[in-house]
## 1
Amino acid sequence: MRRSSLAGAVLFIGVAQFLFFLRVAESIYPGYSVSGNYISDLGVGVAAPVFNTSVSFLGVCVIIAAYLSLTVVGSRVFAALVAAAGIGAFGVGLFPENVPVLHTVFSFITFFFAGLAAVYGLRVFNRLMGVISVVCGMTALVALALFASGNYLGLGHGGMERLIVYPVLSWGLMLSGYFIAKPS
């Protein structure tokens, strides 16, 4: 299997399983509200084993894909940004929100570097994919700034947090398809 296909497959598996198990965790968490709860609330209580395992596995997959992407896109900066986001995701699973300082640090690392990696995609990918990357990354980074400043735009803190997470997860799925389809 080509490195690019392997990078794409690993990234797809990581993102897809996280999206799936995020919904499972939301479903088994009593009274969970998408707008009223943080995503990380799923990391404590009955949903914790599902959420923490899934987000840690996502982090491992992103780190592996970042390593494999070195030869695919030829940019150490891009690979480092993606790897940093993966390290952050792994840390979120390792340090749930009941470990507040470390959890906040790793959440920020994930959100910030995933958004930055997507924006940096403008320098790495063709014009259309580069533009889509920037839109995803800027959406996440602007949402991160709004979230950090307490401006939730009527979405609640959980809804605003999803405006950080969903664009970069969508970008990760697009990136996985790019890697899989890239000719050798």
## 2
Amino acid sequence: MIGYVTLGCNDMARGAAFYDALLAELGAKRMMESDRFIAWFVSPGTPGLSIIKPYDGNPASVGNGVMVGLVVQKPEQVDALHRKALALGAKDEGAPGPRGPGFYAGYFRDLDGNKLNFFCMT
């Protein structure tokens, strides 16, 4: 159902470097970009993630309660990707681990404060 998610970004070069390195771990590459946005996809027709300078010209800000969940196949991937995000400068918002029956996730905030997680169903 989700085609893509867009996150506000105040420093496109910094955001691009963060997501180039992090999303490469999932096999994602830049598929679209301009001076205002960059979008990563694993392949055409699959859900993607993008960063953008807000259209209204105001600074990007974080939506309280907004979070992007990025699905992977197994807990070891959640662990590795959470570690990678933190190594790239993300802030920990919840270490990887079980979050109820059948759900394993690790939470972080990117360089602009957007909240994301990697998760898998176990």
## 3
Amino acid sequence: MTCLIIDDSPMARAALRSLIGEVDFLELAGECEDALSALKALQERPADLLFLDVEMPRMSGLELLDSLAHKPLVILITSKRDYAVEAFEYRVVDYLVKPVTYPRFVAAVQKARELFQQQDRKAGATEGSGQLFIKVNNALTRIVLEDVLFVQALGDYVTIVTRDKRHTVHFTMKEMEHRLPPARFVRTHRSYIVALDKIDNVEENSIAIGKNLIPVSESYRSAFFSRLDLL
């Protein structure tokens, strides 16, 4: 999930930057010191999640939300507790009071991640071509999604592993996560996306798909297990 910090306090931005760096499913897209610069930043590069300070000069965080035609997920950050009612009315993900503690931060971003995945699943319900095309040696190669076992990140590339082949393409994991139907694929690690129906075994912090062992990181563990049909 890409996120944007919007806060007029340099210390608050630094604290949030440090917390975001501890969570592997968050990608910091940028920082803004006021709402007006945030408007410009969001026009140039939309973000999935905003860490938004309520009290800022010229335009408050709530006024910024009023001005957005498309509202991302929002976690409000404030030094006061007086905005709880407004936070509820704006349907923000969570409401954090400064100084933000690590456990409280993690709880809020996990909630945001679950909502983000729900949105993706709803969007994925209208998808379903069952295939994608990748460019290999100046030609387009068709990959049937039913054949995909998992995807692995390799620096600026990803390897798409199917039943009988491996295709390495210049792509990011975030882009792959958006391209693959969320009803059929799940992120288990910063470097792995797996096909749910290809999992043979799950043991402790790893998944077996055939002879391949794939890690499940702590940050993705809860969301991953919520996707399994457990008896």
